[in-house]
Amino acid sequence: MPDVSEPFQFRNLAVHGLTCLLDYMNINCKLEFASLMSFSSHRETIVPFTRDFESIKAALMQLEYNERSRIVKALEGVQSLVMEEWGAGVPCQVLIITDGVIGPEIESLKSDIENHYSVTERGIDDSTFPLPFPFPCKLHVICIANSTDPYLQAALPIYQKLIDISGGGGQVFVPEGAISFKSIQTMFVKLSELYYKPFHGVLHCGTLTSNVALSPPPEPFSKARDFELVKAEMSNNIVICGFISIGDVSSPPSHSRHLILPLQSSKDEIKPPVIKLESSENNEDETANEDGKQPSFCVLLHGSLRVEGMVAICHLGGDWYGMLYSWADSKKKSNLMLSAFEPGPDVIPWLGSFTNMGPVELVPESEIPTLPIKPSEKRSYAQNCVVWIRQSGLQADIQKILRHARKLPEKTQNFYKELNRLRRAALSFGFHELLEGMATILDRECTLLPGSAHPDAALQLTHCASALRNNNKDYNTPVLPLRTKFCMDD
User: Where's the Integrator complex subunit 14 beta-barrel domain (predicted)?
Assistant: First the structure.
């Protein structure tokens, strides 16, 4: 290599790059956990999840080469390790450090990938392949090899397919130019700045401000809804709009949660705002209490929210909102947290639209609305659903209409209610043949009426049969009773 005079192995380059990454994390991502695993024909967890990055660097110096590189074994090990430690709800980043040579397993790996695609295309879950992981994950492949290496060129498409199957994003990293300590360091610095960059912003509340960091850093929001693709990115300015009691806000669904960490402008150090909940003579508690005495708007806000039992509704940029609240992770300490809702002004139904909120002092005391706010439209789950999964369900609905038809005009209201219920369901399902069939049944029922039947019965049945046959397919326009001279109110 051009920048060293002694022979070095690929392992030395990998250790150098990972050391740069761990140093970056030690400065910017102190609250993150990391783990080290080696893989070959078998896998081994060298260092379990820890915040002690120095222990990982020490373990790196003692790693040894093994006989081959089995990526599938590595992915299986990652899945087992993360699921055992964190479960399926915590997002992770997986870094595969390799020399870019898959080896004799390249054909079997290609076959596994092709088999995975063929199985998933049929709508079947492929339990034999470790990807995608059951937890949110970004998968990165860092290649310690020259970009012109033919073995690397053969492996790059496979690495990219693994990232695509993972589904959470990620990237394949290759050194720029000739392989050297400098190029490897540049590659890992690029990885760090792209995927481990901390989020620094400003928390605003009126004229009060505080420089803060969010841990973990918020990811850009992207979600495909029914008729649109919603994208949003959190602003660097988090503006508190107002305060609301915990009882009113209840426990709303959130897209992500973040710890609010105040930044000391002088040293740019991150110190979490700690509130002491119980008195103790422990030295650790005394140290935390000393940190809490430092002038900080975050500590003021945190203590106020905890004492008053309130949360702060904040604007995160665009149509994106969230809430700040005090969260206790133990009996003695609590932290200031941010829960980011999904983008949109009315994503919390019982609060209404955030844009309609304002100071309670501006509303007369007699007109103060109470929470939760009732929705203007009737929810679908509040109505009786029509279920025609089996033939008996449809038959029961038709027979119910016929029972009311034979008791006309006394059951006129019930008859039209059930008829319109069936008509709306048929239009919703696109079951237009049912409308013609129901009209035929009503015509037949009209001919079978006994001589003692009320004259209005035949008129109503004929009217309904013709209404079902006409071209009016408006879901919201019901079939109304025919007004005749036999009506009681005429």
Answer: 196-344
